[in-house]
Amino acid sequence: MDMDGTVCGADHVLSPYTVEILNQLAPVGIAGVIVTGRNEKVAVATARQAGLTAPVISCNGAIVTDPTTGERLWLKHMGREEIENALRVSRECGVSVSLWTPDAWYIEEENPATDLLTILLEQPPTIRSVDEVGATQPVVKVMIGGSSSQQLDEVADVLEARIPGMRRSMPLFYEAAPKYATKAEAMQFVLGVLGVSAESVWGFGDGENDLGWLAQMGRVLVPINGRERVKAIADELIGHHAEDGVARYIADHVLG
User: pLDDT tens string for the chain (256 positions)?
Assistant: First the structure.
């Protein structure tokens, strides 16, 4: 389950109803896996709130964590050339960029996109030269933010063509993980830990950064609010994320 736009509501948190439903999965032997672009801290806390014990995928696939012990099972960094290219292209496109390390995130100046990130990550950014961070820190994700969805629409083709792995995650954000450490690769790792095949898994996601891992799943379920490219691969469209679509589907078709 992806978080924002999928299992989380319009306020970007799990509703009480969703928490109640997800807590019923483990007792009946169903593994619930959080697959998110958000940071490790929030992803693990969300899994614990929902009673999920399967490995948690965060930072768009760069980190996999055991939510019961807090142990990092998988940690991948971006290459310096990847980072430099992303910074160069983002500047040419006139959009903001943030660099994430396993424990912090860095920006050069605040803007509407970073204001939203501060809420989503439950952590304020560190103001520092991103060139310096990219040259000296272990970067696990590059996130590009726009002042509006329209601004990102206008530069979408350039971002996707010139920055490998850069995909739209939310209306105001594009993001990229380390090469060979996307949500798809992290999901394969988690399936190996759990000892299950991809064909036996149902995947819930809404963003274009979910396309890779969703395509591996036995059944693809996309909220009606999902992006068009994601809805195109859905086996079934489900209820809106703001109306507990994932939880209601699980209650009716899994637990029910």
Answer: 999 999 999 999 999 999 999 999 999 999 999 999 999 999 999 999 999 999 999 999 999 999 999 999 999 999 999 999 999 999 999 999 999 999 999 999 988 888 889 999 999 999 999 999 999 999 999 999 998 999 999 999 999 999 999 999 888 999 998 988 999 999 999 999 999 999 999 999 999 999 999 999 999 999 999 999 999 999 999 999 999 999 999 999 999 8
Residue among 1, 20, 3 nearest 11 (CA): 3
pTM of the model: 0.92
* Residues contacting residue 103 through CB under 8 Å, at least 6 positions apart: none
User: What is d(CA 156, CA 150) in angstroms, rounded to the nearest whole number?
Assistant: 10
Domain 80-176 part of CATH 3.30.70.270: no
CB 208 within 8 A of CB 168: yes
Alpha-carbon span 76 to 79, nearest angstrom: 10
Burial of 157 (0-12, 13-18, 19+ CB in 10 A): exposed
Tokens of 37: 């672009």
CATH homologous superfamily, domain 3-75+181-255? HAD superfamily/HAD-like (3.40.50.1000)
Q: Are 167 and 207 in contact (CB under 8 A)?
A: yes
